[in-house]
Amino acid sequence: xxxxxxxxxxxxxxxxxxxxxxxxxxxxxxxxxxxxxxxxxxxxxxxxxxxxxxxxxxxxxxxxxxxxxxxxxxxxxxxxxxxxxxxxxxxxxxxxxxxxxxxxxxxxxxxxxxxxxxxxxxxxxxxxxxxxxxxxxxxxxx
Length: 142
Prior knowledge:
32% of the residues lie in helices and 32% in strands. The protein has three helices and six strands; from the N terminus they run E-E-E-H-E-E-H-H-E. The radius of gyration is 18 Å and the shape is globular. It folds into two domains: 42 residues; 98 residues, 2-Layer Sandwich (GMP Synthetase, Chain A, domain 3). The strands form two sheets. It has a three-stranded antiparallel sheet with strand order 1-2-3, with no helix packed on it. Strands 4-5-6 form a three-stranded mixed sheet, covered by helices on one side. Strand 1 and strand 2 form a beta hairpin. By secondary structure, it is of the alpha+beta class. The longest helix is centred in the middle third of the chain and has 23 residues.
């Protein structure tokens, strides 16, 4: 059975919107002052990058727990290039997975990243439809 997400996004005036989420939480979307907004909300294209990192991050965090790996800290850097012409979109995206710790099992952590990137992360698959993806894994020994 297929799943459908239904999101309602309501205009709050000027350039601001509020969008709900299946989690029950709301988020505000707004343009910056240069574009007539007040800068009091998330930018839509940047939210896409947060969605990408969050989707893959949830996969990796779940695999870290499942594999019982020791990781002191983990973060994802997402660097995206926007096209010059309208409609502007991300044509190249670099996703960097950074792991920090004393006893990092690099091969297993790399496997967790690979499983997310190649198999589990649906947002990554969506991005692959329109952007060149580059994946990097960085290990930081403490």
